[in-house]
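Z., the sequence and structure:
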Amino acid sequence: AQSDILDVLPLAKNAASLGPETFVPASSTNNTGASSLHLLLPDTNQVFDLARSKLHAKEYDHAIICANEAANLFQRVTDTPLHPKIISCMKILAVAHAQRHEVDVAAEYAAKYLTFTVQYHGFDSSEAVDAHTTLSDILQSGQGRYERGSKHCRAAQFINEFLGGRNNSGIGLGYFQLGT
């Protein structure tokens, strides 16, 4: 019940004030709650790290749950959808869904990853190259999406060449990906 949470919150605030960490207020998007809960950024980082470790351990179901939770928590803690770890959560979600062979959902998350990356880092950054490459790989793995995937591969190739010049070591890999 809401009253249980409101009874515990002052105790948690008092306990957190003893250490070097402080509470960061979280905004409430709905009007049903009496007051917003407070979240700690280190706790949110732990959920994010758990999502990454579950992805590397090939526990894709748990990685998806943790990455969704981490993205929601980061949005609540920072009051913005463009925190760098939210962008990383979109990549984790895209890769985990792609590994589960859910290409449509993976492509949606990869497109969000590309959109957030371009908004945060700009279209001519190494992060944008990674986002285009991720979306390209996911689209090319699905049936009937090779043309859309190759467009993103060419975009990554163009940005890579723009950033590093014609003799960049990553250009050969991009041409190899276009050819296969």
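The radius of gyration is 20 Å. Residues 1-19, 22-36 have pLDDT under 50 and may be disordered.

Let me know what you think.
H.
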